[in-house]
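Re: weekly structure request thread

Next one in the queue (234 aa):
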Amino acid sequence: MTRLQGNNPNRTILVVGTLLAAVLIVLAIFAVRDKPAAGAALNASFNLDGIPYDGQADAPVNVVVVEDFKCPVCKQFEASVAPALESKYVETGKIKLYSLVWPFLAENARLPTDDSKLAAQAAYCVYDQGGNEAFTAYKAVLFRAQGDESTVWATKTRLKDLATNVEGVDQAKFATCLDTDATAARVDAAEKQAMDAKVNHTPTVFVNGKEVVQTGGLDQLQTATEAAIEAALQ
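Done, posted below.
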């Protein structure tokens, strides 16, 4: 009878391989546990108190657009998709179009000044003075003045200059608000909402808390957004 050897190299390799496979499986489970499946829409429960919006207060559908003022595709969205949503749904009282600012591009690019955040703070400073209408006006000014995303263009000096284009803004109060970073905590709170919702690109659109999945360009995003709004209105 052949005697079994306890130090059989093949047996040792098999045990080690089994243990390694088990570790890899566990790591994979942790890696994907909190991530949505590919192509799956995100679902978010946003706290929209104090988040600027365009539209009537009693509009039945909430549309949230997550943007960074340094994002070039967001600028394109504001020039093409947003006006269509405005005329078809905002002006007819069907939606409130919220702007949830997620200032991440400057930090991602490791720029010496986080002008994504400065632009967001400035927009909130305008909002504090003139509400939704002033915020919407300043947002348009910021996107028109947008510089290259890899450079620092939204300095405090530049943001103050741009604020002079918004009617009714007390420039001294605006400057104090911006210089003292008075709205920084609220910008951080908005950023946290975007991150908690697991947003990973801008612009990202949510209709009543459900992401509109973008599978193509802005034309496709507009079509999908309008379809989601129509469904929410039913």
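Confidence is low (pLDDT under 50) at residues 1-7, 9-38. The two ends are 79 Å apart (CA to CA).
Next request, please.
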